[in-house]
Every structure is written in structure tokens, then in C-alpha cells.
């Protein structure tokens, strides 16, 4: 199934189509055309989002990583082009400040760009009960300045298979309730659908996938919600939900993301 997010900047009427038959409109006048195809658009993280068992990322090695801020860091996200950020729908706030070029979120490093949102769009079929369709798009109020510290992540051409190693990153807790100042990274494998469904019977939709280690000890949890799961240089997932953190037989659950630029 394919869903289209189409923002028609060429007319006064903008139409956002996040599914082929579901659109919602807003008034405005813009001068460029952006089309994004959302193919496997589905979810990733409940109330726990910290990186456990990982390591401090090399500074600015994840230039797509953003921090969503409303007076404090509350979720992560991924820059997909100079105008758009992808995050999790359960991170929704009507207005957010997107912080790009960060490594240590509590120190001014001179590489940061703080840009407010002009539009925050949740998937129209997002279900807060089962965290389905946990995808959100954020339009920046002005284009990000791309440089060595701020770069978009590539959009996937297909969904990555089980066994693929991926990197998840975020500023969430590294243990207990203490948040990490520096961006944390962790390599995790995508798990098979069978292992995922066995871990969460009756809870996994086609929009979700599991990644991590069934033996526990390594996971993404509090503070990393909405952040990227990057596999082979492509954004494959968004941190969505899970039970506990780094617990045996309870890997992280992620929203599948497949956004393709259409020309």
C-alpha cells in the first residue's frame, strides 16, 4: 500500500494527502512543490525511551538527528530535507522548536540551529491506544542551513529485512532516570516478525517492527521517542514504544518509515 503526502506549494490551497483517500487542507501561498510517498508508514515507542547499553556518538556523526524542544528536550526526530523533520506522532505538540546541529544539548557548541515549526502534522490514522501509525511530520518555519553539522538522512527505497543492523540514537536516559547530555548511539538488529509478535502477542501491526536483543541489556528508551533508526544509511524507523527498558524478551518497537521523494 502506498500513501502520498503531497504539499502543493504552487497554489493558494495546500492539500496534505497522507493516505491516498485521506486529505486535509490549509490556506497559504508558497512557491515550490514537495511530494513525499509514504509506503510502509507505521510505529515505534511507548513511555520509555533511553539508550541503554550504547555509547556516546562521535560528535556530529549523526547530522540528521534533531532535538524537539518546548523549554526542554522531550523527543528526537530526523531531518529528511531542509524543510521537513520526521518524528513520532505520540510526541505531538502544536508548536515545537527544532534544534539541529546538537551533540551536547546542555552546552552551546556554536554548531546549533534553532528553528520553530510552522506546521506539525500527525498521521490521520494515528491511534494513541495501540500506538499505530506513530508518524509525525514537522515543517520548519525556514529552511535549515545544510553544512557538516546539519544534513538530511536518506529516505529508504524499501523496508529493511530481519537481521539488518541499524543505529538508533538519542539523548534519552542512559540508566534509571538520568538523561545523557551527549548524543548516545546503539547498534541493534531488526528482528523477525515472528520474534516481534512473540514478544508482544496481539499488539504488533503491519506498521511496526521490532529491533534489539531478546536477551535484553541494550535498548532505546525514555527521551529517544521520535528519534531515528538508520539502517545502511537510510531512515527505516522511528522510536515508538516498548515494555520497560532493555528487558529480556521485550525489544524496542519502531514505526516503519518509507518516505520516497517523488519528482
TrEMBL record:
<dbReference type="InterPro" id="IPR033116">
    <property type="entry name" value="TRYPSIN_SER"/>
</dbReference>
<dbReference type="InterPro" id="IPR018114">
    <property type="entry name" value="TRYPSIN_HIS"/>
</dbReference>
<dbReference type="GO" id="GO:0007586">
    <property type="term" value="P:digestion"/>
</dbReference>
<dbReference type="InterPro" id="IPR050127">
    <property type="entry name" value="Serine_Proteases_S1"/>
</dbReference>
<dbReference type="InterPro" id="IPR001254">
    <property type="entry name" value="Trypsin_dom"/>
</dbReference>
<dbReference type="InterPro" id="IPR043504">
    <property type="entry name" value="Peptidase_S1_PA_chymotrypsin"/>
</dbReference>
<feature type="domain" description="Peptidase S1">
    <location>
        <begin position="51"/>
        <end position="263"/>
    </location>
</feature>
<protein>
    <recommendedName>
        <fullName>trypsin</fullName>
        <ecNumber>3.4.21.4</ecNumber>
    </recommendedName>
</protein>
<dbReference type="GO" id="GO:0004252">
    <property type="term" value="F:serine-type endopeptidase activity"/>
</dbReference>
<dbReference type="InterPro" id="IPR009003">
    <property type="entry name" value="Peptidase_S1_PA"/>
</dbReference>
<keyword id="KW-0222">Digestion</keyword>
<keyword id="KW-0720">Serine protease</keyword>
<dbReference type="InterPro" id="IPR001314">
    <property type="entry name" value="Peptidase_S1A"/>
</dbReference>
<keyword id="KW-0645">Protease</keyword>
<dbReference type="GO" id="GO:0006508">
    <property type="term" value="P:proteolysis"/>
</dbReference>
<keyword id="KW-0378">Hydrolase</keyword>
<keyword id="KW-0865">Zymogen</keyword>
<dbReference type="GO" id="GO:0005615">
    <property type="term" value="C:extracellular space"/>
</dbReference>
<dbReference type="Pfam" id="PF00089">
    <property type="entry name" value="Trypsin"/>
</dbReference>
<keyword id="KW-1015">Disulfide bond</keyword>
<keyword id="KW-0964">Secreted</keyword>
